Amino acid sequence: MPVGLAVDRALELNVCGVGGVLVPPPRSLDEAVEGLATAYDDRTARRLRRFSEVPDGAFVWTRESDGLYRLGRLAGPWEYDASPGAVAADLVHVRPCEWARRAFTENDVPAAAAYSFSRGGRNFQRIRDPRVESATLALWPGSEG
């Protein structure tokens, strides 16, 4: 899979997601979690469950193949995308996401977010540094932060 294919797709379609192709496609979240546990492992299944439970409005960060960072906000429930493009990008477990139009350099991004990517953070993970949320909010378009 070409580097950046999943991120490019997420930004183009205004989604945020995680991988884990399942055949046949799951009809529900519970079926998807069970399918991931069987086809992959319990850790992958737990990651999907956590991803689905994050509240709408939560911030997400991703990184493009050119090294720029993108900021988004979750805006809807989980669904499984079984389209050929989603399968090719392994971006099948998705949620609607509003992405800021602006890309950010590493100097703009909260340090804990940049650190997560520097240590190989590509999967969905929570950043626990309490300063990240306020620093991220200040970067969101239209915020008063």
Quick structural summary:
With 145 residues, the protein is an alpha+beta fold.
For the structure shown, list the relevant keywords.
single chain; 145 residues; alpha+beta; 5-stranded antiparallel sheet; 20% strand
Describe the structure.
This protein has helices spanning 5-13, 29-39, 42-53, 84-89, 111-118, 131-139, and strands at 15-18, 59-63, 69-74, 79-80, 93-104. With 145 residues, it is of the alpha+beta class. Strands 1, 2, 3, 4 and 5 form a 5-stranded antiparallel β-sheet that branches. A hairpin with a 5-residue loop joins β2 (59-63) and β3 (69-74). The protein is globular, with a radius of gyration of 15 Å. The mean pLDDT is 91.
Q: Assembly state here?
A: single chain
Residue share in β-strands: 15-25%
The rounded distance between the terminal residues' Cα atoms is 38 Å
Question: If you compute it from the alpha carbons, what radius of gyration comes out, rounded to the nearest whole angstrom?
Answer: 15 Å
List low-confidence stretches. none
- Mean pLDDT, to the nearest integer, reads 91
Secondary structure: number of strands: 5
Q: Based on helices, strands and strand pairing, what is the structural class?
A: alpha+beta
List the total number of helices: 6
Shape: globular
Helicity, in percent?
Answer: 25-40%
Q: Report the sheet with the most strands, covering strand number, pairing sense and barrel closure.
A: 5 strands, antiparallel
**Helix-strand string:** HEHHEEEHEHH
